[in-house]
């Protein structure tokens, strides 16, 4: 389709020929062959260095190949304004979302969108560090010169720069490579290095910015220019006034897909998350949050933002997995941990979650990530099983350090999003990975999972929590001296075995639908009680419960309970219940009870307990010592 004259309305109609896929980009505008199938191409992590502006086809650029799912909804034309809509419902919903976001935004949202647009992205993402953020900025000598949004459209473009009066050696972005956190800074800069640009995708796909489109997928250049000298497009999208002069003026070089800011924000967030996994979920949430401002600003559409995230996820994995960066990433993690421990003590994780920062509410974070992962854009097509991309497991290397590579791949597979979203379903399926969910452990046990945590190693090796609702036919075997907490509404059927350390069931159905076996360690139950769907066997170890003054059993077993001669019961007296324990308090009920606890201990000072067993119940008679 030839380029149309200025001021003429170009309607981007769907056509059968539109399935041709990517083009070679400006200067070579003939339609290209369809995207190369994933099976015929090397894995992205092995070919990411082809992501250069000199390579503008899916055959020559691995990034364009993994992003080529976008070719199911949009076909690039012979010019920036002559592309073809292949999925009208998807792209209409895509632009309508921007129209709604930009016509309903508040002044505060517009100001925040300006800051994200103009600040160095690596600095913006440090907000995800929460209580550690100011410590990081001071140690890394990281600063920004963009501290406030103008009330009106600035007279010139604005760029970030080291502000006057900043400490000597300060730098914008992640900070100074020669600072006390220099290895972390270098890791962030390396992840955001020369192969990490979104520009090849912008040039190749030539999908217009939302403010150049109407909701009906028309490019309407009126032929007029505004007071700033910019062409006027008849679009329902309202760009934030402070950003009007920050827009690009060459449409062919200023495509919307992918969002470069979103790509950069996620790259920085994943690099920080590797070095500071104590704030992994919060950093990932921060990237989703800040990338969303690109839509609020009117600068990008949801599909653009999603594409930026997909590209960044793959690039971060490839660069972190690259053997050339093995020493750097290990040094960055060690340096960050040592630096923060020297300032806040050994429990960095505890301090990192001690303040009321903007990403402190996990449930709020989960809701926003859930929506912004797909923006609820239309889905269609057959169900496709998840295939975890090669090398993706490195993204969880420091967050789930007690798992091996294959186990991390299973976590990614069982927490990935469903199929049917054209932008997420591209080759290798990088878009389906949900790193926020993966940080909460498995989504299913499709085979027995044996996990060993080591209290002596500290950090996540010593204690972690899996919050997902875990299904599947497999089971869990907990080994080692560390502690693991399960808090999901779990339905896995393969049973739970505790051989060492502590396993906390923090929800009523946390132990799934299978048998529960305790041979060592401590099984700690939530105060509200826990249910075992099948049989319970305890040959050793400790069952730790909280006595309920209202008489509800802490452990309800649908099947049989078998207690061995080395089994211990530990009882905590609930606060305020001192005068409510006149009668024996049930702690365990079962269909049938065999054996008895060898001993009972009271974890609450000033109390003693006596075991009372009858028929299907184990109870304790509590007394003040």
Secondary-structure map:
Blueprint: E1 10-11, H1 44-47, H2 62-66, E2 74-75, E3 84-85, H3 88-103, H4 107-118, H5 121-124, H6 133-140, E4 142-143, E5 171-172, H7 182-191, H8 199-205, E6 218-219, E7 221-225, E8 231-233, H9 260-275, H10 280-296, H11 302-321, H12 326-344, H13 348-352, H14 362-372, H15 405-415, H16 435-438, E9 449-452, H17 459-462, E10 463-466, E11 476-479, E12 483-486, E13 496-498, E14 502-505, E15 516-518, E16 522-525, E17 530-532, E18 536-538, E19 542-547, E20 555-557, E21 560-563, E22 568-573, E23 585-589, E24 592-594, E25 599-602, E26 607-614, E27 617-624
Parallel strand pairs: 4-5, 9-11, 10-12, 11-13, 12-14, 13-15, 14-16, 15-18, 16-19, 17-20, 18-21, 19-22, 20-23, 21-24, 22-25
Antiparallel strand pairs: 1-6, 2-3, 7-8, 23-27, 26-27
Organism: Actinoplanes teichomyceticus
Domain Phosphatidic acid phosphatase type 2/haloperoxidase: 185-320
InterPro entries: Autotrns_rpt (IPR013425), PAP2/HPO (IPR000326), PAP2/HPO_sf (IPR036938), Pectin_lyase_fold/virulence (IPR011050), TAT_signal (IPR006311)
- Number of helices in the DSSP assignment: 17
Distance between the termini: 89 Å
Mean pLDDT, to the nearest integer, reads 92
Number of domains: 2
Largest sheet: 7 strands, parallel
Total beta strand runs: 27
Overall radius of gyration: 28 Å
Strand content: 15-25%
How would you name the oligomeric state of the polypeptide chains in this document?
A: single chain
Q: Could you name the ranges where pLDDT drops below 50 across 5 or more consecutive residues?
A: 1-38
Give the helix level as a range of percent: 25-40%
Q: What would the principal axes of the Cα set say about the shape?
A: elongated
Structural class of the helix and strand makeup?
alpha/beta
Query: Major sheet: order of its strands?
Result: 9-11-13-15-18-21-24
């Amino acid at each position: 389709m030839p380029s149309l004259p200025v001021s003429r309305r170009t309607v981007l109609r769907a056509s059968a020929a539109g399935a041709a896929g990517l083009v070679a980009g400006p200067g070579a505008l003939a339609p290209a062959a369809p995207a190369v199938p994933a099976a015929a191409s090397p894995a992205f992590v092995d070919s990411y260095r082809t992501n250069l502006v000199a390579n503008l086809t899916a055959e020559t650029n691995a990034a364009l190949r993994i992003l080529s799912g976008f070719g199911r909804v949009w076909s690039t034309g012979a010019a920036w304004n002559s592309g073809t809509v292949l999925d009208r419902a998807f792209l209409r919903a895509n632009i309508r979302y921007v129209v709604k976001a930009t016509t309903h935004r508040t002044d505060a949202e517009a100001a925040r969108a300006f800051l994200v647009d103009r600040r160095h992205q690596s600095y913006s993402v440090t907000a995800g560090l929460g209580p550690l953020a100011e410590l990081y900025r001071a140690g890394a000598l990281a600063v920004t010169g963009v501290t406030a949004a103008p009330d009106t459209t600035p007279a010139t473009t604005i760029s970030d720069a080291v502000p006057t009066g900043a400490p000597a050696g300060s730098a914008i972005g992640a900070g100074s490579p020669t600072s006390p956190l220099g290895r972390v800074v270098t890791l962030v800069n390396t992840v955001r290095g020369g192969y990490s640009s979104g520009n090849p995708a912008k040039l190749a796909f030539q999908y217009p910015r939302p403010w150049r489109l109407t909701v009906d997928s028309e490019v309407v250049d009126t032929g007029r220019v505004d007071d700033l000298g910019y062409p006027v497009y008849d679009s329902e999208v309202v760009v934030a006034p402070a950003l009007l002069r920050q827009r690009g003026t060459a449409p062919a070089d200023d495509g919307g897909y992918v969002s470069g800011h979103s790509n950069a924000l996620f790259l920085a967030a994943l690099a920080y998350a590797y070095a500071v996994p104590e704030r992994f979920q919060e950093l990932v949430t921060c990237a989703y949050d800040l990338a969303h401002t690109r839509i609020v600003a009117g600068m990008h559409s949801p599909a653009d933002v999603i594409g930026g995230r997909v590209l960044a996820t793959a690039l971060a994995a490839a660069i972190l997995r690259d053997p050339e960066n093995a020493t750097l990433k290990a040094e960055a993690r060690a340096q960050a941990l040592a630096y923060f421990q020297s300032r806040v003590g050994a429990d960095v994780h505890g301090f990192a979650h001690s303040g009321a920062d903007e990403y402190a509410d996990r449930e709020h974070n989960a809701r926003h990530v859930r929506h912004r992962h797909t923006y609820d854009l239309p889905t269609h097509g057959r169900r496709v099983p998840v295939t975890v991309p090669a090398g993706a497991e490195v993204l969880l290397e420091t967050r789930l350090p007690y798992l091996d590579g294959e186990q991390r791949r299973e976590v990614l597979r069982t927490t990935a999003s469903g199929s049917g979203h054209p932008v997420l379903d591209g080759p290798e399926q990088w878009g389906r990975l949900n790193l926020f969910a993966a940080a909460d452990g498995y989504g299913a046990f499709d085979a027995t999972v044996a996990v060993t945590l080591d209290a002596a190693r500290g950090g996540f090796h010593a204690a972690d929590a899996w919050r997902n609702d875990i299904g599947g036919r497999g089971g869990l075997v907990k080994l080692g001296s560390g502690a693991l907490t399960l808090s999901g509404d779990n339905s896995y059927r393969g049973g739970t075995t505790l051989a060492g350390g502590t396993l906390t069931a923090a929800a009523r159905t946390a132990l799934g639908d299978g048998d529960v076996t305790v041979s060592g360690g401590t099984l700690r139950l939530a105060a509200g009680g826990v249910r075992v769907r099948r049989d319970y066997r305890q040959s050793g170890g400790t069952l730790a419960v909280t006595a309920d003054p209202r008489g509800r059993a802490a452990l309800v077993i649908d099947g049989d309970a078998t207690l061995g001669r080395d089994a211990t019961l530990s009882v905590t007296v609930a606060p305020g219940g001192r005068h409510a324990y006149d009668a024996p308090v049930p702690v365990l009920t079962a269909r049938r009870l065999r054996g008895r606890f060898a001993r009972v201990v009271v974890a609450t000072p000033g109390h003693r307990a006596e075991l009372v067993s009858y028929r299907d119940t184990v109870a304790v008679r509590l007394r003040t010592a």
